[in-house]
Each structure stands twice: as C-alpha cells, then as structure tokens.
Amino acid sequence: MTLRLSLRRAPSGLALALALAGAPPLLADGGEEQIEQGSAAYAELCSGCHANAARIVRRVEGGTDAERGGRLDSFLKEHHAPDDAQRAALIAYLLSL
Ligand code: HEC
Q: What is the pLDDT of residues 70-94, one digit of tens each?
C-alpha cells in the first residue's frame, strides 16, 4: 500500500522537478492554462503597440520573477491591463518568456 502511494506520487514530483529546472517553459510559472490566457490577452491588448513581448519584458527591472512580477503588476494596472485576472495571466505569460 505504501509502495503504491509513493509510486503514484512519482510522476508529479518529476513534473515539478522538470518545471523547476526550466525545461518546458510552459510549466515554469502560473501553470500552462494561465500562460495561454496571458498569451491571448497579450495578442488582444498589447501586440498592437508591442510586437515583441520578449523584448519588452527584458526591459523590466528586477533580479527575480517576483520582483519583476510586482513591477509589472503596478505598471500594467495603469497601462492597458486594469482587470486583475487578465493582468495576472499576462504577467505569468510575460515571465515565462
Ligand atoms: C497604445 C499603445 C500601447 C499599448 C496598447 C500597450 N503599450 Fe506598453 N508601452 C507603450 C509605450 C509607448 C511605452 C513606452 C512609454 C511608457 O513607458 O509609457 C510602453 C511601455 C511598456 C512597458 C515598459 C517597458 C520599459 O521600458 O520599462 C511595458 C512592460 C509594457 N509597455 C507592457 C505592455 C503590456 C503588457 C501591454 C498590454 C497589456 C501594453 N504594454 C500595451 C505603448 C503601449
């Protein structure tokens, strides 16, 4: 019984390790679904002025994703992304690039 339980946990542990290692970028942050939503929101709200999302996110200061995410959050609130859920998805997407 104990053995079965630990075997059943193994795959999610592996997925987490891969995500932490940065292997699949889509799993690295807020989850694949949120990142997809952020990507769609970017296309809708941002891409008209910023063709290249990766380039713009590189200009955001901060040593960690948490710092850059915090900056993006307060900046984007006043910059074309007032909706909280949409902004969170956008930030997950931008930090995944
Ligand atoms: C109407 C055009 C327009 C839209 C739409 C727009 N931006 Fe911008 N954005 C700009 C301009 C112009 C600047 C540079 C001047 C400034 O800081 O306001 C800028 C600056 C930025 C910066 C700061 C870059 C730096 O130099 O630090 C980020 C990050 C950013 N935009 C992200 C976004 C995101 C994400 C969206 C979508 C929610 C978005 N923008 C929508 C025009 C736009």
A: 999 999 999 999 999 999 999 999 9
Enclosing H/E stretch for 68 = helix 65-77
For ligand 1, atom 18, which residue shows the shortest CA distance? 79
Report in angstroms the alpha-carbon separations of 48 from 5, 26, 44: 50, 23, 8
Q: Which one, of 46, 45, 73, lies nearest residue 60 by Cα?
A: 73
Task: Count other C-beta atoms under 10 Å from residue 34's C-beta.
Answer: 18
What one-character-per-residue DSSP string does 9-29 give?
HHHHHHHHHHHHTTSSGGGSS
Ligand 1 center from residue 31 Cα (angstroms): 24
**Interatomic CA distance for residues 52 and 32, integer angstroms:** 20
To the question of pTM greater than 0.85 for the whole model, the response is no
